[in-house]
């Protein structure tokens, strides 16, 4: 398997309103376009005093690409899934999936909204545009599956 056969991307979401209202702090920090830092220090508020429960070192993780809190749906699609369609158009079986904890932003990234569609809509739109460009030369059969 070549290194181009599987890519791993991370999209870091901003704190949501409940987290902001709860005075929570970020534990995942974007270092650059390939590295995120996971804070390991656990803070405990006991009777209005903050105690560090753990002195464990922060963890650094490297990915093919990291998208920060201000990344757009278009940016995520253009830099991840759009390239997969090149292989698809050459007859390869392709898979794109989102994985993560509840509330991490998987549905937002994959589905988006009517005003700002996510990866799935943008992929289908681009796929049919590409197929339309070669419809006189090729025939396509597109089975698809979605899991939630």
Automatic annotation (TrEMBL):
Pfam families: Kinesin (PF00225). GO terms for cellular component: microtubule. PROSITE patterns: KINESIN_MOTOR_2. ATP binds at residues 100-107. Residues 5-148 form the Kinesin motor domain. The keyword Cytoplasm applies. This is Kinesin motor domain-containing protein. It comes from Muraenolepis orangiensis (Patagonian moray cod). The lineage of its organism: Eukaryota, Metazoa, Chordata, Craniata, Vertebrata.
């Amino acid at each position: 398997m070549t290194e181009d056969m599987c890519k791993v991307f991370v999209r870091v979401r901003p704190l949501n309103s409940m987290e902001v209202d709860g005075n929570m702090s970020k534990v995942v920090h974007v270092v650059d376009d390939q590295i995120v830092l996971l804070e390991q220090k656990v803070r405990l508020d006991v009777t209005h005093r903050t105690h560090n429960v753990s002195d464990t070192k922060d963890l650094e993780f490297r990915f093919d690409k990291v998208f920060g809190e201000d990344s757009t749906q278009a940016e995520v699609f253009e830099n991840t899934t759009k390239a997969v369609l090149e292989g698809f158009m050459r007859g390869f079986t392709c898979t794109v999936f989102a994985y993560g904890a509840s509330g991490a932003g998987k549905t937002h990234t994959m589905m988006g909204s009517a005003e700002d569609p996510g990866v799935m809509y943008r992929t289908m739109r681009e796929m049919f545009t590409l197929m339309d460009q070669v419809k006189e030369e090729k025939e396509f059969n597109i089975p698809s599956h979605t899991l939630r």
